[in-house]
């Protein structure tokens, strides 16, 4: 049986994924993790065939967990399943070593196809994402301001651009308000901006948020 570790902080999402995957005759052994620590504990305790990882996890974000998984289990494929649109995080996820990137709006059939492709050693990307990657590779070395941010800074920037308050971001990421404020200051400095309004305008203009 294919052994699948599902990492998502929402129990209803984990149950939904298990129901979809359990309909496949060769997919029946599942593990569940709701935060970064549980993900790494389960990876160290047991051999898995694939990890389905949400990009927005409490504490360390999905991209940080992905890098740690790649460091400890370089051959273990990780499929990112996220609420965020592809153009927001997909390129970063693939650069960090993800075997594929899907949004949670994807059809169940696409999820099954993605898992099977990844298990054969392939990468799963949608046609839209393939186009984005092509454009990314064609670009020269001059980076856009948001590409200078670390993965965590980028995550915080997107949340600020979505209109979330510092305390709300801190609660979501299980970090202190002081830490988020420090990230915000760093983001503004790196992007040479003065206010949240500047970040929101930039994010909309560059289609980083819906």
List keywords for this structure.
5 strands, 52% helix, 2 domains, Arc Repressor Mutant, subunit A, alpha/beta, Rossmann fold, 210 residues
- Global structural class: alpha/beta
β-strand percent reads 5-15%
Name the CATH architecture of the largest domain.
3-Layer(aba) Sandwich
CATH topology term of the largest domain: Rossmann fold
How many beta strands in the DSSP annotation?
5
Helix-strand sequence: EHEHEHEHEHHHHHH
CATH class of the largest domain: Alpha Beta
- Principal-axis shape: globular
- CATH superfamily membership of the largest domain: Response regulator
**Tally of separate domains:** 2
Tell me about the biggest sheet? 5 strands, parallel
Classify the helix fraction into a percent range. Answer: 40-55%
Terminus-to-terminus distance = 39 Å
The parts where pLDDT drops under 50 for at least 5 residues are none
**Number of helices, counting only DSSP H or I runs of 4 residues or more:** 10
- Rg result: 17 Å
Mean pLDDT: 88
